[in-house]
Amino acid sequence: MSRLGRGAAVAALSALWCTCSATSAPAAVPAYAPVDRPGPALSVPQASLDASLTCSGKVDGATREPVLLLPGTATTPRTDFSWNYEPALTRAGIPWCAVELPGSALQDIQVAGEYVVHGIRTLRARSGRRIGIIGHSQGGMIGRWALRWWPDTRPMVEDLVGNAPSNHGTIVAQAFKLACPVTGCSAAILQQVDGSAFMGALNSGQETFAGTDYTVNASRYDEIVVPYTTQALAGPARITNTVIQDICPGDLAEHLGIGTYDRTAWALALDALTHDGPADPSRLDKAAVCAQPLMPGVDPLSFVTDYADAGVALGAAIAGETGVRAEPPPACYVSAACPASAPTPATGSTVRGRCGSARRFVVRVDGGRGPRLRRVTRVTLDGRVLKVTRREGRLTAIVDLRRRTRGVSVLRITGKDAGGRTVTRVRRYQACRR
Fold first, then answer.
1. Which end of the chain is more exposed for a tag (fewer CB within 10 A), N or C?
2. Across 288-370, where does the E strand assignment appear?
3. Where are the domains of the chain?
4. pLDDT tens digits for 81-107?
5. Which CATH number is 360-430 given?
6. How far apart are CA 105 and CA 67, in angstroms?
7. Which has the higher per-residue pLDDT, 303 or 394?
C-alpha cells in the first residue's frame, strides 16, 4: 500500500530538491562556539512564537511524557501529522503539541529553530516533566539544532525521534547547484544540502548529548535524504539507528511515507516513548507490526486521499515560496568569536528585563497585556504550581529565581476573562549569574 497515492507526492518531493540548490560556497566559520555556551535570547516576537504552538490532551501537569511534533520541509502540522500522528498519540493517551514552522518550514532553519526552542521550553513548563520530540525530515533534524545551540533545552528533552531526518544533509541537491541563479531557492533546502554551512554548524562539537535518547528511523527507499545511511547519528548519547526494512523487509515506505503513515516507524517511536532509553527493535512484535502497513491514526478508507493531499500541499508550498540566491549566512551565535550577548532580542522577545538571579519578587497575575482576568485558575513557574494571593484587590504570586543561575524561567497564568473564555498568558524571566 506504500505505493498508493505516490504520484503527486513523489512529483512534489522531487521538485523540492530538483529545483533548488546552493549557488555559492557556504560561508566559512573559523571556529564554532563551544557546546556549553549559553544560547542567545530568542529574536522572534513572542506573539509569533505563541501562535505557532497547538496542543491537545492533558498537557498541563501531564502524567506521562508529552510529545512535541515537528513537521518536515514544505509541510505544516496539518499536512504532516493531522491524519496520522496526532490522532494516534491522542488514542494512546499521550498529550502533544505541534509547532508550525515559518513559511511551511521553507525559510531559514536558524530562525525556525527558535520556534522549536520555544516549543520545548513551553511544553516542559506546562507538563512539569521531560518531553519527547517526534519529527519528520527537517523536523527530525531541527530539534538537534535547538539542543546544540541552547544548552538549557537538553535537560528538558528525554527522547528525540527522527523519521527520515536530514541529520547530515543530502547529496541529491548537489547536482542542481546551478539550477536557480535567477529564480532563487528555498533557504531551508539550501541549508539541507550536503556540505552546507548550516550542516557544518549543526554537527560541530558533538552530534548528540548524553541525557537525551535518540531514535533514528530510516528507509532504504528514501529518495530525498540520500544516502539514507547519512541519517544515522553518533554518540555520546544513547542512540538507536534503525532501517525499517531490517525489521519489516516488505516495508516499501519512502521519504514521505516513513513520516506519515508507516507502522514500523510508529512502533519504534512509541517504543522509545514508553521505555527508558531509545527504541529497541527487539521489543517489537514484528509479526504484528509487519502485517499492517498503516500506523494507528490513519484511516484506511481515506488513506489514498490523505496521502495524495499531503503531496499536493507540499508542492503548493514550494511553488509559493519566495527564493533566496544563496544559503543564509551562519547566525552569529554559532561562532566562537560572537559576543555572548548576541543576537539582541527583538521587541516582544521571550525574556523580560535583565538578569533575575538572587531575585524574589511579587507579580500581578490578573493584569498585564490584554483584558484583565476575572478569575485566575492556575499559575505555574517552570511547571511548579504557585500560590495566588489577593493583595489590595489584585491577584498576585511570588516569583522566586534565587536558585536559578542561568536560563529562562516560564511563568504561565491560566484564567477566565470577562466573557468567560479561558485565557493563558506566558511570561519569561531571564536568570543569570551575578
1. C
2. 360-364
3. 6-334, 360-430
4. 999 999 999 999 999 999 999 999 999
5. 2.60.40
6. 19
7. 303
